[in-house]
Amino acid sequence: MLGDITIAREIYIACGYTDMRKSIDGLAALVQESMGLNPFGPALYLFCGKRRDRIKALLWEGDGFVLLYKRLENGNYKWPRTENEVRSLSWKEFRWLLEGLSVDQPRAIKSVEPGDFC
User: Fold this and answer.
1) Rounded Cα distance, 40 and 57, in Å
2) How many CB atoms lie within 10 A of CB 12?
């Protein structure tokens, strides 16, 4: 299915600025070279430019890449600008990001994994 992002098992965000002139090949090269990840895996890769009003998402569907692009008319994304090259997001954090919120919500109840009780 064209652009069904629910097939992604992982979501990765490229922190900092990305040249938004890059297309599929350029973004796939960034995933592989800068992030050290496999662009052909079942993951969604997110990129944002300096203006923070547009994002691009790269997704491998098994037979080709899908490049999704969203431009906000009002406001901007609360994009992480830390020095880290790549960061993994949960679906909840992804939703926050698209709603204009920071992915680091201080009051959010965090998910607990079975081994986290020790």
Assistant:
1) 14
2) 21
Q: Would you mind telling me the total number of residues written for the chain in this entry?
A: 118
Residues 23-31 have a mean pLDDT of: 95
Distance between CA atoms of residues 67 and 41, nearest Å: 15
> H/E/C letters for each residue in 42-85?
CEEEEEECCCCCEEEEEEECCCCEEEEEEECCCCCCCCCCCCCC
**What are the structure tokens assigned to 93, written together?**
């954090």
Q: Is the pTM of the predicted complex or chain greater than 0.85?
A: no
Residue 90: partners with Cβ closer than 8 Å, 6 or more residues away: 11, 111
3 state DSSP class of 16: coil
At 46, the amino acid letter reads: L
The kind and range of the H/E element at 105 are: none
Rounded Cα distance, 78 and 101, in Å: 6
Q: What are the helix (H) ranges across 21-103?
A: 24-33, 91-98
pLDDT at 28 > cutoff 60: yes
Distance of CA 97 to the CA centre of its chain: 9
3-state class (DSSP) for residue 12:
strand
